[in-house]
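Entry for the shared binder. Reason: the reviewer on the internal report wants the predicted structure included alongside the sequence.
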Amino acid sequence: MRIELARAKVNLCLHVTGRREDGMHLLDSIVVFPAVGDMLEASEADDLTLEIAGPFGNGLDAGDGNLVIRAARMLSNKGAALRLRKILPVASGIGGGSADAAASIRMLTDLWDVNSPALETLTDLGADVPVCMAQVPTRMSGIGEKLAALPTLPKFWIVLCNARQGVETGAVFRAMKSRDNPSLSQTPESFPTVDNLFEYLRAQRNDMQTAAIESCPIIADVLSAIEATRNCALSRMSGSGGTCFGLYAAEVAADEAAKEICENHPDWWVVSAQV
């Protein structure tokens, strides 16, 4: 049996810098992967099957349309018994489906002893799939196929929060008033302290946040709840929403923030993790 953690993909900043003739949007983003995610297992079998469980597994398609199956079929027509435990909210801006597809590829290249596809071809599965393959802090641009390593980041913690309302990415893009925005500021050669990192991130933005709030107003409430916690260095939305995050320099601050938000909003999905 093979087991893979499909970590959440968090856009610490996300600039929409243009749109290609085919309609695909151009992005510039810093992406990190906290220690929380879906779990994917694979065992040898004659046929390719997928079983889905977990708190966010209800109603998900386990057939040929699932990204886990589509990713597997990019590799081979071999069989495997796959089991996905869905821990991350669906349609939430933290790359759950893309992370699952990437985990499927990592796991099955080992199980089947086959080569992994070229990274640039993985955007056929989704723009976030290439960056989810390595699960390391990355500057992502183009439509998701251009990946650049970042300097080593200092240790910090994150609180992820979602009001359990899915957001449709296409609707957010359509609602955006500007799709031709400036790129990220040049990333420094190093971030000597976590304060240096937070200062850089504060000067960036998520260009999709305003449009997402118009589509799903509760996102503004989620951001306010995070901002109200002690020692929150930055709060922002990830991806196209509706998951938002707060950044903290210390583990105890993140844990206390997550506890406070859970107590005030028991129906929300809230988790703290190290980045």
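Summary line for the report: The helical segments are 67-75, 96-112, 129-134, 169-175, 194-202, 209-215, 218-227, 251-264.
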